[in-house]
Structures are given as C-alpha cells and as structure tokens.
C-alpha cells in the first residue's frame, strides 16, 4: 500500500481502494435492481404469451437503463483510472455522482409505466421530461470531479496531464445540454422523439467512455 | 499493480480488478434476489403447512435458478482466469454477459408462477419457451468473449494457448443449440419434458465449468 | 498473486480472492435484505405508534436473523482463514453453503408472519419447525467443507494442522442435532420453547465462531 | 499479506480486508435500497405530473437518508483508517455498527409515509421520534469501537496515537445527546422542528467525518 503523505494544510490523501469497492457495489446493485421492474404480468388463464408481449415497453425501458448504467460504469472505470488517491472532497463528489446512479431506477419505472399501461400522451411527456432532467442533473458531479482534479493535480496518476483532464469537461457539459434538449423535445414535440434523443445521448457517452482525445496525441494511460 | 502498456493504436489494456469486483457484485445480488420470489403464502388460519407444500413448484424454480447462477459464476470464474488484462471491447462483452445473468430472475418467476398457480398447460409451454430462449440468448456473449480472446491473444494469461480458447467455443454453441431444442420440446411436446431438457443443459455447463479439454493434454492453468 | 501450481491429475488450485469477494457480497446482501421484511404497518390515522408496537414480533425475527447471518459471516470468516487456495470442489461446497445463507430470509418471514399476525398455534409450530429444518440443513455443507479439507491438506494455510480441522467437524454435527431437537420441541411441545432452543443454538455458534480448540494448545492462526 | 502474530492469550489479530469488503457491500446495498421507497405514484390518467409533485416529502426523505448513509460511509472510511488489524471483538462491534446502518430504510419509510400521505400530526411526531431514537442508538457502537481501540492500542495503525482516539469519543456522545434532543423536540414541540434538528446533526457528522482534531496538532494520518 503506497503511503502518499501530504504537507500539513493540504487535504489528506488516502487510497482509492474503498472508493472503488463501494462504487462497484452501488453500480452492481443498481444494474441488478432494474430487473425487479419486470414483473410477471397479470393475465387470464392461457393468456400469458399475450400478456408478455404487452409488456414490450417495460423490456425496452429495462434495456435502455441497463445500457445506461453499464455506460456509466465504464465511464466511472475510466474516471478512477485518472487518479492515484482520493480526498474527503473527492469522496463527497463521488457520493454525489453515485446519487445520480442510484436514482435511475425511479425515472425508469415512471417511464415504463407511462409507456406500458394506461398512460396518456401527457403522462408520457412528463415521464420523458423527468428522465431527461435526472440525466442532465447527473452530469453535474462529473463536471465537479474534473474541476476538482484540475485544482488538485497531485491526485493525478503518473502520465495523465492536466490538459487531458481539462478536455474531459466537454463531456458532461455536452451531456447536460443535450439531455435538456431531449427533454424539451419530449415535452413540446413528442415523447417518442424525446426518448430517441436520450438514447442518442447514452450512445454518445458510450463511444466517449474512454475519454475525449485529440487525433494523434493519444497518450498511453494504461493501468 | 502491473502496468501493461500497449503500442499506440492497439486497444488500451487495463487491469481486471474492477471487472472482477463488479461482476462478483452482480452475481452475488442476482443469486440472492432469487429468494425474494419465495413469499409467505396466503393461507387460512392453521393452514400454513398445507400452503407451504402447495408452493413446491416455486421452491424447485428457486433451486433450479440458484444452481444455474452458481454454475454461471463458476464458469465466469474460469473465464476470467484465462486473461491477465481487459480492454474496452472486452468490458462491453462482459456487460452483455452480465445482462444475461441479471435477467434470470424474470423468466424464473414467470416459470414459477405458471407451474405453481392457476397456470394452464399453454401458459406453462410459454414459460418454458421463454426460459429456454433467454438461456440460449445468454450463450451468445460467451461465444463473443472467446472469439475476442482469439483475436487478442495478448490478453491471455501466461500458459493459456489459443488452441485451448478455440476449443471452449464449443460450449456456448452446444448451449445455444440444446436450449433451443429444450424450448422446442417444451412448446411442441410437453412443458415438463422441456424443463428436464433445460436442467440437463445446466448440468452440462456444471461439469464443463473448468473448460473442455482433451484427454491427456490437461494443461496447468492454475491461478 | 501467488501461483500455486499442482501436479497434473490433482485438482487445479486457484486463489481464494473471488470466492471471498463473492461470499462477502452474498452475506452483505442477505443481511441487508432482512430489513425489507420491516414494513410500515397499515394503521388508522393517529394510530402509528400503536401499530408499530404491534409489530414487535417482526422486530425480534429481524434481530434474530441479523444476529444469525452475522454469526454465519464470522464463522465463514474463520473458515476461509484456514485455507490458502480453492478448487472446483471447494467452490461447489461454498456455493452449497451460500445456498443456506441466501435462503434465511424466507423462513424468517414465515416466522415473523406466524407470530405477528393472525397466526394460530399450529401455524407457529410449523414456522418454528421450518426454521429449525432449514438451519439444520445449512449445517451439512459446513461438515462437507471440513471433510474436504481433511482429504486435501494441501489447501490448508501454513500453521493449520489436520487435527485442528478434524476437531471443527464437531460444530456442524452439534448444530444439526440441536436444531433438530429445537424443531421437535417447537413442534411437539411449544413453539416458544422451540424458538428459545434455536436462539441458544445461534449463541453456541457465536461463541465458537473462532473454532473449537483445546485448553492450552491455542495455536497462532493469525492471518 | 502482513502476518501480525500475537502472543498467546491476547486476542488473535487478522487482516481487515474482509471486514472492509463486507462493510462496503452493506453500505452500498443500503444506500441503493433507499430508492425502492420511491414508487411510481398511483394517479388518474394525465395526472402523473401532479402525482409526482405530491410525493415531494418522499423525495426529501430519500435525500436525507442518502446523505445520512453517505456521511456514515465517510465516517466508517475514516474509522477503518485508524486500524491495521481486527479481532473477533472488533468484528462484533462492527456488526453492531452495521446493524444501525442496515436498519435506516425502515424509519426512513415510516417518516416518508407519515409526512407524505394521510399522516396526522401525532403520527408525524411518532415518526420523527422513531428516527431520532434509531439514530441515537446507532451512536452506541461507534463509542464502543473507540473504547475498544483505546484498550487495544496494538490495533492502531502507525502514526495514530491513543489521545487522538480518545478525542473521537466526543462525536458519538454528542450524537446521542443531540439526536435525543431532536427527537424530544419533534415529540413535544413540532415534528418539523425535530426533523430540522436531525438534519443539523447529520451535518455535524458530515463536517467531523475526518475526526475531531485540535487546531495545530493536525497529524498526518494518510493512508
């Protein structure tokens, strides 16, 4: 175990082992709890097949959220590979970030209910807007994480420079903007279009999960 | 922590620590959530014993799925012993694989409900078919995992050769074929026969969980 | 990571890291899920306090099972400190052992329901008997674990001798016997006496959680 | 793995790896389970937005408890950084401490129900009192933890002195006193004032999560 002492006055630095273990536990539970939304449908005898098909929207919401949490985990994986230690401040930002992860099953089940059952068009707009707002709010702690690392470069792992960290801030900013646009589309135009916009956004996070880099300056940040 | 750098252009390799921790978390939660299906049965005063016996099908479904997830964990255990590092691509395949694990409680509870309560013969066929289809679909990411390792032998742990990895592909292929046959038997012939077929298939995965090997070429792949 | 190779033919030995992580995950989830049984009671407006008191039996069942799972974790902690590696066979026994842990919330909620609500005396006898039978059945894999270690002393950590392992077999045997007696008392004599007997048994496991040893031969098995 | 042997007669010391992993698992699950309280509200078609707003109290209870468990995790993080080994006695105290963590969702949902739905003023007083009593009772094992460390200084990590440990005892004592005052305020004066008092208390634990220290003697206790 590396002991990375700090000078008195600077925040105390500790290992990231427990931060990683706790975060992985939270991600694992959230991604698994999503399936609880999938219930055996009430059905008349002999009508199970029909009832299962009627739940198609709930399956889609499940897959959407599974993909979302999976992408978040990959992004978190990359995030923690930037650092070699943590502080109380960074632990708080990580907790804030996990709050966003933990809350996902709630807008997911609102979404699934609005699209599956007797949801009206208005309820669907509400559900898409709620999902978009939660997703946008979840981007804030990621921005705070990068900002904190810029101010405390001593936490950066060897081989990671501040310029790389600065570039990453574009991701949560784009996230916030586009989730809000997706929510607005869902609210003012059509809930289905809003849902597609959210799906596009998750895809954006998926392809940038290893960080935004410039063409040839692809640094070696292996772990 | 070993730093296994890669040449620029090749996928970045990172440690498998978090992949392992996250996967173990997911397996632990899924195998524990199965028990939630076991509810105290509604019963008239004094009729608890009778009501408990009437749930026999739910207990069997619980044991079947516990054994299934346990076998999957043993197989996953063996799988990760093949590699010494992971990449973004392999993380995606692992997430896909975990999707299959996470989803198990849903077809399990459909199965339990169809066999326990007022399920008709038709509903039971549907439930067996659903279970078989999910189990067959779960085999695909395992095939993808082995295929990925064949194309990226640098991820293989010392002492594991590509020929061994190639041989393992037979397992998910047999899995897919036999689960589909089990589902077809359940649908066209008899739900109980289909269920037996699925049980046989899980047993096959159990006995091959350390990998398929040839008689005497038993390599030492200790970890 | 130590590589402990084995000669061809002997079972392959692997590290206990994942076995430990997976087991800890299962224990953590089970001990946490117990609280789900504690529900906000239905109550008339202003009658919350009264309704909370009426749930006293559910609180006791919760505490009993929390203590039980805690004791099991401590015992498991001591168990894994005996070994320095695992095999496929030992993984199977560990899964069997975890099956017993995972199932605890079910007899617990049966017990809570029988003692809390409109349970008759007969239902309470059934609930105590069920709890005792499950607890007795849970002792079997512990016996199998010790028996396996006796046959494979190479898995024992340095400083642990076979005689110590042999002595431990007394614990699951006593467990099985006394749980069955507790169940019989609950069934034939009085459910409350049976419950007390189970509590005594859990206490016995608590005080012997570090293993049964002879007076002065207290070996140093620090980890 | 460091082997820290003890002289015969003294309690056997073992590593804190499993204690940490198990505790992190429990914290991760509790903080994630809190979201289960957030249910899609029953609502007339088209009234989803209105119904979501009516659940405001449940969202507040969720955030309060998320912050609480988060603060507890940070405190536990700091706690385990004091020690370099554990004993059976300390494992028991840690289990007792986790009992307090695990139980949080129950008073939280009582609180949410009393403030959200048709709760009367009297029910709200009961709910605030219950929350305060549980929170006060949770402080006891923290005090026991510090007391145990004072009696077994060999468990302290290098660089941590007994005086520092002694000073920490003030925190659970203040916690117990103030939670009880908060509960009394909620019971005798106003449930809302009691709730504010509890919030203040959680804030106190948050700002002291790295331990109470004297002005300039700020020791370097990096890990």
Task: Write a concise synopsis of the structure shown.
4 copies of one chain form a homotetramer. Chain A has 9 helices and no strands. Chain A is an all-alpha fold and 223 residues long.
Structural overview:
Four copies of one chain form a homotetramer. Chain A has 223 residues and is mainly alpha-helical. Chain A has one domain. In chain A, 68% of the residues lie in helices and 0% in strands. Chain A contains nine helices and no strands. In chain A, α3 runs parallel beside α9, α5 runs antiparallel to α6 and α6 runs antiparallel to α8. Chain A is elongated, with a radius of gyration of 20 Å. Chain A starts with 16 loop residues before the first helix and ends in a 16-residue tail after the last helix. The N terminus and C terminus of chain A are likely disordered. At the A-B interface, α1, α2 and α3 of A face α1, α4, α5 and α6 of B. Chains A, B, C, D: It is a multi-pass membrane protein. Chains A, B, C, D: Pfam families: TMEM175. Chains A, B, C, D: Its main location: membrane. Chains A, B, C, D: Keywords: Ion channel, Ion transport, Membrane, Potassium, Potassium channel, Potassium transport, Transmembrane, Transmembrane helix, Transport. Chains A, B, C, D: It comes from Micromonospora sediminimaris.
């Amino acid at each position: 175990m590396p002991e990375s002492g700090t000078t008195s006055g600077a925040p105390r630095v500790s290992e990231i082992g427990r931060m990683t273990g706790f975060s992985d536990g939270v991600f694992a539970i959230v991604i698994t709890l999503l399936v609880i939304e999938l219930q055996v449908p009430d059905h008349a005898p002999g009508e199970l097949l029909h009832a299962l098909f009627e739940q198609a929207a709930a399956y889609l919401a499940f897959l959407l959220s599974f993909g979302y949490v999976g992408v978040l985990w990959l992004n978190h994986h990359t995030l923690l590979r930037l650092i070699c230690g943590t502080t109380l401040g960074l632990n708080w930002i990580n907790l804030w970030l996990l709050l966003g992860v933990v809350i996902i099953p709630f807008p997911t089940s609102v979404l699934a209910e609005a699209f599956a059952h007797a949801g009206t068009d208005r309820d669907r707009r509400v559900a898409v807007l709620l999902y978009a707002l939660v997703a946008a709010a979840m981007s804030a702690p990621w921005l705070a994480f990068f900002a904190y690392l810029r101010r405390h470069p001593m936490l950066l792992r060897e081989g990671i420079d501040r310029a790389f960290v600065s570039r990453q801030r574009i991701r949560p900013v784009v996230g916030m903007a586009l989730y809000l646009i997706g929510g607005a589309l869902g609210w003012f135009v059509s809930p289905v279009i809003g849902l597609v916009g959210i799906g596009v956004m998750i895809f954006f996070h998926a392809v940038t999960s290893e960080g935004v880099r410039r063409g040839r300056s692809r640094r070696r940040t292996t772990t």
